[in-house]
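Chain A, query sequence.
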Amino acid sequence: MNRRWIVLASVTALVAGIAACEKEIGPAKNSTPYTLEIPMGFPQAAPPADNPLTVEGIALGRMLFYDPILSQDSTQSCSSCHNAEYGFTDFGKKYSTGIDGIEGTRNSMPISNLLWQSDFFWDGRVKRLNLQALMPIEDPIEMHETLPRVVAKLNRQPRYQEAFRAAFGTKKASAETLGLALEQFMLTFVSGNSKFDRVMRGTETFTASEQRGLQLFNGESNPNNPVRGADCFHCHGGTLFSNFTLSNNGLDSVFTDRGLGKVTGKATDDGKFKVPSLRNVAVTFPYMHDGRFQTLRQVIEHYNTDVVANSPNLDPSMVGFVNGLGLTQQDISDLIAFLETLTDESYLNNPAYASPF
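Chain A, predicted structure.
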């Protein structure tokens, strides 16, 4: 059985297992409801109906996120590859390394504003965050553990017996409650207090360079337009700075990683990867699914001059990039200045997201 079918079979098994227990799992009767604050200008959204946020559930998820007990040899936690200080990425690394010293094949994705997303992983193979949270545990390249063994380890720990009781009304952990707790914690990762947000609220102003970068960001690439644009907004517009679709942005003419096509088996999906949010993008390098670009300037140079015209399944919104955007080095510097206003220091340094240990 090849790796694609192993992954799909694992997802199917997780979905079936959780669906079977869904009606029996919920917050403990005495748990404390948690109200998530939605930043001004963000679309309204709510946590999954079957997993309402509670103070106790979030606290449990926070413990689990930072506990290396989830890995086979208790050396690696979720936070090992998702550092809060750098937008929950594996700072500066092209690929993360698992417990056996094996390097992965994709860049560690940043984590923020997951409440507004419905596709997870670069290839969008999972549609629910509680399922996504479990898969690295059983991935042989990452934590290389099994869910039954993790659950057994958790159930031997008095602190987890109490934490699961407080969150879900039972002392015994399960794969389902493990995933739900991690989902609750990660759904609180809301970034919406960058300089950009403060400018939108009228409490700060852009510099001349940042303002020009914003105009370029929102400008069309059509060469007939009187004002040149970088055409970023089609995929990265709105307050979330992503449309969260899966698309091919013209990196290659031949794919060594099929992306969504590997999941669906359709050639028409080859080369399509999730469009990440640009929030905190200045600190989440390297960039692209394979971490090929180390700097924002390199990313913009790709869009400016290097989009591959014959890349199969090139997204229609990339047509205007094929002949080049004609951006000057000053244009690129101004764009970078604007993108740096998306850094949310209060998010990156939020004590609520730090290790509880």
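Residues 3-21 form the longest helix (19 residues). The CA atoms of residues 185 and 240 lie 19 Å apart.
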